[in-house]
Amino acid sequence: MKKNLAAMTDEQLVAMYAKGVNEAFDALLCRHKTRIYSYIFSVVKDNDIADDIFQDTFVKAIMTIRQNRYSESGKFGAWISRIAHNLIIDHYRQEKSENLQSSDAGEIDILNRKELCDVTIEDELVTSQIHTDVRRLIRALPKLQREVLIMRYYRNMSFKEIADVTGVSINTALGRMRYAILNMRRIADKHNIVLTL
Question: pLDDT tens digits for 178-193?
Answer without folding.
Answer: 888 888 888 888 877 7
